[in-house]
Design brief:
Helices cover about 40% and strands about 30% of the residues. It has two domains: about 40 residues; about 50 residues, IHF-like DNA-binding proteins (HU Protein, Chain A). It has about 90 residues and is of the alpha+beta class. Helix 1 packs across helix 2. It comes from Candidatus Roizmanbacteria bacterium RIFCSPHIGHO2_01_FULL_39_12b. One of its GO terms (biological process) is chromosome condensation.
Length: about 90
Amino acid sequence: MTKADLVAQVAKKANLTNKAAKDAVSAVFGTISEALKRGEKVVVTGFGTFLVRKRASRKGRNPQTGAEIQIPATVTPGFTAGKSLKRLTK
């Protein structure tokens, strides 16, 4: 499902225009993104949790030369599905 498909489904189920549904979907994703930028956790009860995961620096190898390199630490967004969502996908 693409974002456009999601907007169409929201418009249909919530009885909204496509523009209003697009604004609503964009607002939700924008709000989640802003919270993650601030390092906050976003919990949607019954759906899941969006959070920022930290990866430690580690050693790796360049596959072309075999030389050892240092991979820097990073932060990445993550999602953990809630119980209700997990039950639906079984």
